[in-house]
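Subgroup meeting minutes
Present: P.N., E.W., G.H.
Scribe: E.W.

1. P.N. recapped why we're keeping a running log of single-chain structure predictions: easier to compare across weeks, and new members can see raw inputs and outputs side by side.
2. G.H. added today's entry (425 aa).
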Amino acid sequence: MMVPGIVGRLLARAVAERMLVVAGLIVAILSLENVQRLTTDLQQTNNAIPLLGRLSLLLVPEHLSAAIPVALLLGVALTVRKLAMDGEWQVFAGAGLSRRRLLIPLLVVATIAGGVQLVLRMEIRPAGERALDALYGAIRTGAHGIPLPIGEPVAIAPDTTLFVTRVDRSPGRRPVLAEVMVTQSDTVFSAPIAKIVRSGDGTIAIDLRDGTAVTRPADGPVRTVSFASLRLSGSPEMIGMVGQDFRQALDRRDTAGLVALVRDGAPDARAAATAALAMRIDSALFCLIIPLFGIALGHPGRRRSSAIGIGLGIVLIVAHLKSAAFVEDHFAAHAALAAAAHVVGWLALGLATLWLERRFGEGFVERAAARVVRVRRARPLGDRRPRGVRRWAYVLLGFHRVAAWPPRAAANSDLPIGRAAISGR
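Output recorded in log:
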């Protein structure tokens, strides 16, 4: 006799292991995707490799919060799929373990994942965003090197353009700009060296040393003036900095900051902060709904090995992210009610998916897709779409079981040997 507690622990362990592997892979892929952009931002800094590591580490909370829902879905779906293809899922059913009993360990793992997601969204991710802004602010002020593009013109004012040929990195001294040229209206300033000073608000001051100014008025001869020192100011475009609109400012607030804004902020800010809080909680509660999709969509069905159900589950995860962003943007005035309706709607969809599995059998998505493909291949081109759409409508609305669909006419190879021999004669 199988002990339910042992089965539950084994099931939870298998889901957790697959979930951790998938989450690690997703975080690694997202981190590698940002390496090229971060490297471009840091190419003029003095210590690019350590800064790249710090920036990548500060982005891990954001990547992990995006990876948890997908990792949880794949952990549940892949575990159910393996058990089903090995025949162990049917053994559990034959031993008297109900679907509800098998769902409990999956919900335990989902609860832990939801708690991690809540801590990430409420505390760790906002702290990472603030640390990321502070590090980029230090790069902007030149604390880690000269943060200007080299070898291309940079507009530092509406009528002023800066061009730096190279950076002199002599040992024992701070890097300085070399072979600098500044164009301002009808005057060109050039100097062999220049020093740069930047402030956190984006203004820049360039000290040209031992340079020459060439002016050519429209109605006069060219005039040349030498100078020992000349300072020009401007505001060039920042490198690698994200925008600072109100929505992004909310992403940098932790729980205490959002609660303070809800309590003391202006009406619009209060509504936006309430929506941000509600949708962060929504992202954690959605983790409790994911096992419903994982069980129903992970089972491939009998004698099938396709992964259409798992692909559909990933589409549902993306749809949840899009719908959550839509609710936060358009229903901020009624954030609590909209977030509750959003959670209830996805819970209803998860329960409906389980109901469809009970009605049409395990692997109903794969069977339905296979029958639609078979009908499309068997019928003429002009007659394919109505029949395929009608059969999908039967599945979704529950008018007919998949098994009740009229079977395709069997060919001789599909008939038993005796009947095939008779038809051959």
